[in-house]
Design goal:
single chain; alpha/beta; Spore Coat Polysaccharide Biosynthesis Protein SpsA, Chain A; 7-stranded mixed β-sheet; two-stranded antiparallel ribbon; 6 helices; 13 strands; globular
Amino acid sequence: MHAVILAGGKGVRLRPYTTALPKPLVPIGDSHAILEIVLRQLAGAGFRRCTVAIGHLGNIIRAYVGDGTQWGLDVDYVTEESPLGTMGPLLTMLGRLPEHFLVMNGDILTDLDFGAVLDGHVHSQAPMTIATYPRTVSIDFGVLTTEDGKVVAFAEKPSMDYRVSMGVYGLTRDTLAGYPAGLPLGFDEVVLDLLAAGRPPRAHEFEGYWLDIGRPDDYDRANAEFGDLRGLLLKGA
């Protein structure tokens, strides 16, 4: 069981916390970095190999994580010399990845069972599996539907329900085989290509705890909640 952690971003939205630290290493609670929590969870879910894609301040991540033995993992690294998007870093390492593997962002807090995502992906034979989470978006305006210059429907401050990507994916190596290495490639591009080819990704629906630590408000929330969630996030890890 092999996981790839994407940890090469600059964390611009999380400044000033990321001025001196890469985003996956900002501390949560009293004694854990986000990336440490993720690595503990992966080890607890049965993963034994992990590749960390690093870029901005990557030397700090390498120094902190080392070879991963403290968590029972065999960790290696790939370095992005320039930003390659969500899927681009995978193209530089395809030759050393197994047929099926997990890909995830290195800055999320969740009690998602990563092993179940990869296991479900393998058994589904889908080209990609996307872990999804429910979100409700409230619109603070009256919404009009118009046709030919006339209002034909109206909703006062409606709420809309969506399922969003959690930043955790199951992937099959052949899904990326046709893309050139060294060029940027986004998650969105791969999904749209699969849909256009009639090969829809599989959805792994999740209803538990998930927080994408992308903004200062999210980071403050994570720290405020971690004391109550420590047992949930680190169970078995």
